Amino acid sequence: MAAPEPEAPPAARSRAKDHSPWNWLLFIPIVLPLIPVFFNADSPRFLGFPRFYWLQLAYILVGVATTTLVYQLTKKRAAAPSDGLAGADAGDR
């Protein structure tokens, strides 16, 4: 007789079922630095730095912004806690 499989924790189950289309936005900071036409030049310079160097910093900002946006759009909203007033009003009548 086979032993029953242990259940996965609730957090692992919810992550596995997260098929939000917003997750596709996470490919932007992966693919964007792989396109050589964006950084294959010396000009324009920004504060004396060639395009390649300041674009690397811009890619970091794009990655942070994209990750934050996807997180905010896909996180589970917590239910508003009840303050107990609805039960007290019903009992007073």
From TrEMBL:
Keyword Transmembrane helix: yes
Regions crossing the membrane: 22-41, 53-71
Keywords: Membrane, Transmembrane, Transmembrane helix
One Pfam family of this chain: DUF3311
Protein name as annotated: DUF3311 domain-containing protein
Species this chain originates from: Micromonospora peucetia
